[in-house]
Amino acid sequence: MQRADLHIHTRASDGEFTPAQVVQAAATARLDVIAITDHDTIDGLAEALAAAQGGPVRVLTGVEVSAQQDGDEVHVLGYHVQPDAEPLRAHQHGALGRRQERARQMVRVLQGQGITIDYEDVLRAAGGADARAIGRPHVARALVAAGHVRSMGEAFDRYLADGGLAFVPTELPSVGDAIAMIRASGGVAVWAHPKQEVVEAYTPRFAELGLAGIEVFRPNTHPTDGKKMRGIARELGLFVTGGSDWHGPHRARLGDFFIPADDVRELLDLAPPG
Hints:
Blueprint: E1 3-8, H1 19-28, E2 33-36, H2 45-52, E3 58-69, E4 72-79, H3 86-112, H4 119-125, H5 136-145, H6 152-160, H7 175-184, E5 188-191, H8 196-208, E6 213-217, H9 223-236, E7 239-242, E8 259-260, H10 265-268
Parallel strand pairs: 1-2, 2-3, 5-6, 6-7
Antiparallel strand pairs: 1-8, 3-4, 4-5
């Protein structure tokens, strides 16, 4: 049985490992197929593909695009995207600037609440001054490093989660625009970790926009919810995918969660030749 994990982040966005280190960790974990799905950036794809060349791990190209629908933040995974696709490059340029400004605003809000933290602390948590894809996890790591909270979970619960004391909204493309961009980049679009309370209402609308699949297999998905989502996917002619949403060993070891590759064969078989 081949083992797959189709939702993995690297240091190109908010993961802890470089793309090459992720590929090595996947090989050590005896994963056969992985997908690199960094937030709003494809910068890590070339390194991951190069690291996997001739090795035991097959790497799928991917991206995770932050979008919005009716005021809700929705994440759309793009699989089999071209590693240097111009539509995604253009999106990446604007998205990374918005991410950096959002992090600066969060730092200012935290400082206004008496939390001694600087944007430079966030950059260090992201891997250094040249880090570009700044996200809330980097702010959370900075808060942990400064001793203001004991864990990233506490940082989100107290400050950074939607509606939290330091939450800052951001401008995002529509789901339709995200799907169109992924398709224009040679990829297929999948709804990442859908919220159970809206999956039934939104999926038909997203399918009309070109959505190809739903991420069903996840570490914490209740079997009843998974069964419901698989039924919705079948009714709409969508395929199912899954992955750990792995960001680094602070949460779990890579490979602790995997999917039999045959369960996501429809997506795997869509990969372009070569």
